Amino acid sequence: MSQMARRIVRELHDEPHLEGRRITVQFIRAQVEERGLDPRTVADRHDIDVADVYRALTYYHDNPEEMRAIEHDRQSAVEDYEHLTTDPDDITD
């Protein structure tokens, strides 16, 4: 695992993520707080330091308005492009 302390940056898709990685703050929060995974497990699965997991969680909770806006933008994008997706149940042989 990298021993380099990572910063939270906004370089990819305008969403906060670990510097040098595509792992977003929102993804890490979902793994720990929604799925109930231990921070060490998340760190091990994604080859990051456990401190990076805590940095992401801290960033998420220190920036609630920003994170709500990101989630709103993500949900709007899903709704805007929903008509372009296919439900597997609608596919016939």
Give an account of the 3D structure.
The structure is a single chain. The chain has 93 residues and is mainly alpha-helical. The chain has a single domain, classed as Arc Repressor Mutant, subunit A (Orthogonal Bundle), CATH 1.10.10. The protein has four helices and two strands; from the N terminus they run E-E-H-H-H-H. It has helices spanning 25-34, 39-45, 50-62, 64-81; strands at residues 8-9, 17-18. A two-stranded antiparallel ribbon has the order 1-2. Strand 1 and strand 2 form a beta hairpin. The protein is globular, with a radius of gyration of 16 Å.
Keywords:
93 residues; mainly alpha; Arc Repressor Mutant, subunit A; two-stranded antiparallel ribbon; 52% helix; WH-like_DNA-bd_sf
Largest sheet report:
2 strands, antiparallel
The total count of helices amounts to 4
Q: Structural class given helices, strands, pairing?
A: mainly alpha
Series of H and E elements:
EEHHHH
Q: According to CATH, what is the class?
A: Mainly Alpha
How many extended strands?
2
Q: Helical amount among residues, as a percent range? A: 40-55%
**Assigned CATH architecture:** Orthogonal Bundle
Strand content: under 5%
How far apart the termini lie comes to 46 Å
Sheet with the most strands: spatial strand order: 1-2
Mean pLDDT equals 87
CATH fold-level assignment? Arc Repressor Mutant, subunit A
